[in-house]
Amino acid sequence: MAHLSIDERTAGNVTILELGGKITIGDGSVQLREAVRKLLEQGHKNLLIDLGKVDYVDSSGIGELVSCYTTTKNQGGQLKLLNLTKKIQDLLSITKLLTVFETFESEADALASFGG
Amino acid sequence: MTDTIELTIGSKFDFIEIVGSVTKGVTELSGFDEETTNWIELAIRESVINAIKHGNKESAEKTVDVTYTLDQVALTILVRDRGRGFDPTCVPDPLDPENLLNPNGRGIFYMKSFMDEVEFSKHPDGGTIVRMTKRRTEPDGNGKGETGSDGPSID
To answer: What is the ipTM for the molecules in this complex?
Structure first.
């Protein structure tokens, strides 16, 4: 059973991935990794991950976000986060990952940050 | 009075959801608030993931025992695997700048962040036991778990 849903859409030069459900060890983490890998292969280098409908993340899910960030950056792209829930914000904060990720509460602000 | 609930699962990640549900139920029964319940559930999930992945090496015939003990003072949860044991002091610090982008190594940190006490020991018959405690009340009698004041300490 898939615990994570991923809806993909495009806004200008940015691909937005709207995630819903759980990013946890096993299926959820693998699905996210595959989705990001596929987009990078297709040349989509500006990725915005919308976490607003994610109700659960464990350390594997946080690790997968880090891994996707690194992979995207290493390929000359940018990966940013949108609509963090309080839980996700806390998990990123105590592991100092809010110093790594660019995060946004507004989609318009996030899109503008990628530039033209 | 002390209440005990025991759960034994095979080494499958699919069973983590069951452990999560039982933990949530026990924690709510203990009177902890919603936020504290969430963090306790996360800590136990992380411990069971470690037991399956690093302890039992996902070996189907090896089990993980989860024991919840609730008394007036605290909720104590033991997670035991059947692995060869490990040295928790060897786990790299996930807050070290050179480890920040490591995709692994945050599970034990989260367990220690969200529980009052986390201890590792070896079972005499083999395997590692992780003992995690969440106090129901502060030593001065204030209701810690019920106030929501014991969430993660944010930098």
So the answer is: 0.92
